[in-house]
Amino acid sequence: MSNTIAPFIPLAISLISSFIILWLANWLLLARHADLGGERKFPRQLIMLALNITAIIIAILTLPISDSSRNQLLALMGLVISGIIAFSSTTIVSNLMAGVLLRITKPFRIGDFVSVGNHFGRISERGLFDTEIQTESRELVSLPNSYFVNNPVTTTRSSGTIISQNLSLGYDLHHASIEPLLIRAAEQAGLTEPFVQITQLGDFSVNYRVAGFLGEVKQLITARSNLCREILDVLHGANVEIVSPSFMNQRPQNSDQKTIPRHSRPAVSTDNETNNSGSDLAFDKAEEAEKTESRREKLKADIALLVASLKDAAEPEKSSIKTHIESKTKLLEALDQQSKKNSESR
After folding, report:
1. DSSP H/E element including 212
2. Cα 169 to Cα 100: distance, rounded to the nearest angstrom
């Protein structure tokens, strides 16, 4: 009886130990941190995945079988994992592998404006299998990570971007008189280093492109609207008609009659218009996620510096440093709790 049970003792010990370790690891990494977002859960989930694979390998090594059979099982396990990865283009594993790739290449971060396929918005959350973006309509769209890998991703740089607008004007208007007006419109829209390009000489009109640098990318949607509005105001104010000559030839009116609306713009400042544009409302979750992530990273960096300074600090200073560490740790925990409440309220 004892000879029959003895070979299974190492297997039983390994299974029990693996179960206890996996349960503790899951509780420490995930269960007691259920409020963590997808971005912070990702490395913890990867650790749990690695621990589970390790537990399976240990169980195989402790099986009471011959070495050749054990090697065959290990080879079979490696073959299964390789097969899953090889055929993961249409499975959940593909999104997992794509999520790992996105962490390595870092094409974007939380809060960035991105355009992928037919989707445009700000990154509001990054998960193990999908990434969430918030559109300019305030909608939350979850896209599989594999979608970001299989499609070109355009990311607006946080240091600033170029805002541009195209329009066509007739050949009867000389470009030397039009370009200064478009430059002025870009400046009044709050853009710096404005420039104008002639992009095409069409059959009936000249195509212009006016552009300028926007330093605050969070106002991207508002800046585009402001540029269009200022182009209308400046050109109409200079008695320049924005309409195709072919349209003019098809309507019954005098040749000297122009289509320019009366200037009835309310006397409000550009700042008020910008504040009431709706950008903050449209991207509220992405904006909040970016601020939360920035504060979290700042607190982590401060705690790391305090821990490093604790080693070389004198004995009277250690208590003060420990107090600062505890204070910042509590702030970090409060930030996580607030993030959880905000997620549940949405």
Report:
1. strand 206-214
2. 49
pLDDT in tens, 182-226: 999 999 999 999 999 999 998 888 899 999 999 888 888 889 999
The more confidently predicted of residues 32 and 175 is 175
pLDDT-derived band at 234, boundaries 50, 70, 90: very high
Q: What is the pLDDT of residues 270-310, one digit of tens each?
A: 444 444 455 565 666 666 777 777 777 787 788 888 777 77
Higher pLDDT, 148 or 265: 148
State the Cα–Cα distance between residues 152 and 286, nearest whole angstrom: 21
Contact 242, 235 (CB under 8 A): yes
Spatial distance between the Cα atoms of 217 and 221, rounded to a whole number of angstroms? 9
Structure tokens at 248: 């003019």
Mean pLDDT across the stretch 1-15? 76
Q: How far apart are CA 108 and CA 102, in angstroms?
A: 8
Give the Cβ contact number of residue 182 at 10 Å. 27
* Other Cβ atoms closer than 10 A to 341: 11
Looking up tokens 């992405």, which residue turns up? 286
Q: What single letter denotes the amino acid at residue 206? A: V
pLDDT for the residue numbered 253: 64
Lookup: tokens for 310: 């604790």
Rounded Cα–Cα distance for residues 146 and 150 (Å)? 6
pLDDT at 332: 74
Q: Which two tokens stand for residue 145?
A: 């990570």
Could you tell me if 204 and 170 are in contact, meaning their C-beta atoms sit under 8 angstroms apart? yes
- Contacts of 93-98 with C-beta under 8 Å, sequence gap 24+, read 94/144, 94/146, 95/128, 95/129, 95/130, 95/144, 95/145, 95/146, 96/128, 96/129, 96/145, 98/144, 98/145, 98/146, 98/148, 98/149
Ordered strands of the 153-155 beta sheet: 140-144, 130-134, 119-126, 113-116, 153-155
pLDDT, position 279? 58
Closest CA to 288 of 102, 132, 117: 132
